[in-house]
Design goal:
By secondary structure, the protein is an all-alpha fold. 69% of the residues lie in helices and 0% in strands. The chain contains 4 helices and no strands.
């Protein structure tokens, strides 16, 4: 993982974007948290699953234009 990848993941000026599991794991290892990797991996997967489910539901909802055309 390059420094630019980590900088991008931590940049608060950019729209929120979920980093890959690979980036999260490298960050945790770099901070000395290797013994907690399982907990972080589980948390990452739960967040990812929630975001995917929410995204899928949102795609099924009609847009404002569709509602007006009704």
């Amino acid at each position: 993982m390059g420094a630019s990848t980590l900088c991008e993941a931590l940049d608060i000026r950019k729209p929120p974007k979920m980093p890959s599991l690979k980036v999260v794991m490298a960050f945790i290892r770099g901070c000395g948290g290797s013994e907690e990797l399982t907990r972080w991996t589980t948390a990452w997967r739960r967040i990812r699953m929630t975001r995917t489910t929410t995204s899928n539901v949102t795609q099924l909802l009609p847009t404002a234009d569709q509602r007006r055309a009704g």
